[in-house]
Amino acid sequence: MKKEIIILLISWIAIVSLYFWKIPTRLKGRAQTAFLFGQSIAWIYVFLSVYFKRVEFPFREFSYATQLSFSLHYMIYPAFAMFFEVTYPSSNSRTSVILHYALFVVITNLYAFFIGHYTELVRPLKNEFLNIPIFTFLLFVAHQFNKWFQKGMQETNN
Question: Which one-letter DSSP state was computed for residue 89?
Fold first, then answer.
């Protein structure tokens, strides 16, 4: 079995396991909203990245259907957004919020770096350091959407 398949299987199993065992029931709806919105912005991001030739995917699950990676941008990166949202600090302390962003941006970039340099899952073609502000912005957008969505749900239920 190729190492790419093993990495994807481990990633899928880890994400599903963490979702069921570590996210409390009261946060599952919030997590699912963050995951679905994360999928939509990940799709836009990867589509533009491929279009502008910033990245290519030598190993793809559906190689005849698309030039995009299914697992990375429809499961793994949206899961980062989901876990970012459910672990977002409840205190409005700037320090804790900045550290939270920094932690998730570092984790996401390390994952992208390692799979980009040691596997055929993704091949970065242009400056990878541009991903740091892009991932930060995408996490910010995802959080703002989820905050807005949760506020609307609370107003509807009252």
Answer: -
**H-type helices in 23-158, by residue range?**
28-51, 70-71, 77-86, 94-118, 131-157
**pTM to 2 decimal places:** 0.88
The answer to whether the CB of 82 falls within 8 A of the CB of 35 is yes
Ramachandran assignment for 53, one of left (phi > 0), alpha (psi -120 to 50 degrees), beta (any other): left
Torsion of CA 34, 105, 58, 124, to 10 degrees: 140
Residue numbers of the chain with a pLDDT score lower than 70: 1, 158
Q: Of 142, 136, 141, 7, which Cα lies nearest the Cα of 71?
A: 7
Sequence-distant (6+) residues with CB within 8 A of 17 are none
Q: What is the pLDDT of residue 73?
A: 86
Which residues, in sequence order, are CB contacts of 33 under 8 Å at separation 6+? 146, 149, 150
Q: Tell me the three state secondary structure of residue 124.
A: strand
pLDDT in tens, 73-116: 889 999 999 999 999 998 879 999 999 999 999 999 999 888 88
